[in-house]
Batch of 2 targets.
Target 1
Amino acid sequence: MPAALNLVDRKAFTLRLRFLTLLLAVMAILAGCNSSEPGGAQTPVTPDAGTANIEVRHILERAVPTSVDSFRFTGTDANGNIVFGPETRTKIATILLTGVPTQTRGFRIEYLSAGTVVGTFRTEVVLEPGQTFVIDNPDWVDTNTGNAATQLQFQAQPSVLAPGDTFSLQVAALDLNGNPTDSTVAIALSGPNLDGTLTRNAVDGVATFDGLSFTTAGTFQLGASSEGLTPATSNPITVTSAPQPTTLVFRAQPADAQTFLNAVTVQVVDQFGNPFAFSGPITIALGTNPSGASLQGAQVVDTVTGEATFSNLTITRPGTGFTLIASAPGLTPATSAPFNITQGVFAKADFSLVVPAGVGLASTVDGGDFNGDGRTDAIPPAIGSRSSPRPPTAITRAPSCPSAVSCGPTLRTSTATAGPTSCR
C-alpha cells in the first residue's frame, strides 16, 4: 500500500476490501445451493399431493332465493384446515372448480347475496388425482332461520314388546346434513295396531311419544311424517304373542331313595318360560322303568297357581335310572331327571308259626316277593316258632297234624285239623 495514503484513505480501502470479501462469500454460498454435486446444499421441496376437480351441477335447482348472486367454495382437510379457497364464483347453473388438493375432505358452499352469507351447504368428498368429483343438485340451509329442518329420523325406539306393553320413542327433525335443529314442527306417527297419542310437537327439534302400545302380535315398522320434511321409517318392532300356558317343567326333581320318593313339584310355564297360573289337574307316571315296577300314591293332583306337588309317591321295585313323566291336557309334558330306587315297597308285618313239638311240616310256606326280583320267595319248614317279614299265603303239612297256625294281630288265624287232607 503506498505510503502516501493518509489514514482516512486507508480506512476506506479496508472497508471496501471487507465488502468484496463478504460479497464473494455470499455468491459462493448461492452457487453451492444451486449445485447438484454431492455435498452441495439442497433446498427441501414439499412433494405435490396432487389435485383434482370438483364440478357442482344444477346448483340452482333447489329453492335458492333470487337475491343470491354468487357462491363461495371452501375445502378443508381431515383436521378442518382450509386447503382450498375460499373461491367465489358468480351465479350460474354449473360450476367447475380446478386445482382442488386431493387431501380435501370437507367441502362447503356458501350462498351469497351482496356479499352476505344467506345459506350454506356442506358435504364430504374423496378426491383422486386428475379426477372430477361431481356434486349434483346440492341442497342448502337458510342461515336466516338457523339450521332449518329438512328430514326426520327415529332416535329412540324399542325392539321387542308384548301386546299391551306401553312404550315411548323419539323422532328428531334434522337439517340436510343430519345435524340437530331447534325445530318445533308437528310430527305424526303411523303404524298398524298402534294405540296412543300419535301427533306431537318437536321441542328443540325432538318429538317424544310416550304411552304408546300395540294391540296385536307381529312385527311392525312405524312411519313419522311432517309437512315439508322427508319422512322416516323406524326399525322393525317385534310384538310377541300374549302369554299362554304351554309346557310343564319339574321344579323339584325326584331324588334317589329306598322306597318313598321326596315331594316332587311340577310347574306350568308360558311360552317364555315364566310361571303361569294354570288351573287344572296334572298327572304323573313312570317313564323309564328299568325293573317293571309300579308307581303308587296319588298320581293326579290339581294345580295351585300353576303348581302341583306329589308328596306320597312310592316305587314297588328297586332299579337304576327311573324317570317320571308329568302331563296335562293341551300342555307339553315334562320328563324328570333320572333317579334310583334301592329297595322297593313290600309288606312289613311280623307273624309267627306255632307248631307243636314233634310235628313236622312236609312242605314250605309261600312268603311272597321279599327281595323285589319279581319271584315268590319261600319260608323253609319250621318246628316251634319262626318269625318272617311277611305272612304266608298258604301252609301245607303232612296228614295227621293236629296243630294250630297263629298269625300276627293284623293277619288271619288258621287252625289245622288232623286228617288226610291239607291244612290251609
Note: The first strand starts at residue 51 and ends at 57.
Target 2
Amino acid sequence: MDLERLSTDQLETELLRFERLRRQAAAVMVALVGEADRRQVPLADGCRDTAEWVSAKLDVGKDQARQISELSVRLDDLPGLAERLASGEIGPERAHAISRVATPDTEQHWVRRLSGYDLAGVERQVAVTVVSAANTSVATTTSRLFPSSLPWMRGGGGSGAGSVVWPAGSSPRPSETKPTSYPETPDPSTTARPWLWSNSAWVTNQRRPCR
C-alpha cells in the first residue's frame, strides 16, 4: 500500500477498517483462549493460570493477558457483548470494562449507557460502579453482623438504642472524624470493636499490628 498516495479521508478509512479487523481478530482470540481454558491446556503446560499461559504463548504483557483470559470466561454469559466484539462494533478494551459490571440481564443497558463515553470515561464509570457495589456489600454485611454498632445505617442517633457504643478508654467522636488512635483491647461487655475508617462511615473491624 502506497501510503503517500492516499488522501486524508482514505487514510482514516483504512485506519478504521483495520481497527475493525483488529477487534474481530480479538474476538476470535478470546474464543480460542476460552476453549484452551476449558481443555485445561494452561494447567497441562505447567502454568499457574490462564493469564500466565496467554502471556507466555502470545508474548504479551500481564495486563493484556489478564484482559484476554477474563474476557474468555465472562463472554460466555454475555452473548450480546460477545456479538458486538465479534462484529467489530466495540473493541476488547471496552468489552472487558463493561464485562466487569454487566450481567446477562443488563449487558445491553450498559452498552447503551456507556456508548457516549470514550474508553477512559467508560473505565471511570465502571470503576465508580464497582467501588460503590463493594462498599454497599461491606456495609450490608457489617450491619447484619453488628447491628447495634451501626445505628446511622438505620437513622439512629442520640442516646439509647440509637447510640454508638465506644470501646473502653475511648471517647465519642463525630462519625465524620477519623480517629487518631485505637484502644488495644475492646470492652468485652459491649458489642463494639476498634474502628476502621472506610468510605466516610465507621466500619467495625479488629485491628491487628503489621508483622
Note: The longest helix spans residues 8-38.
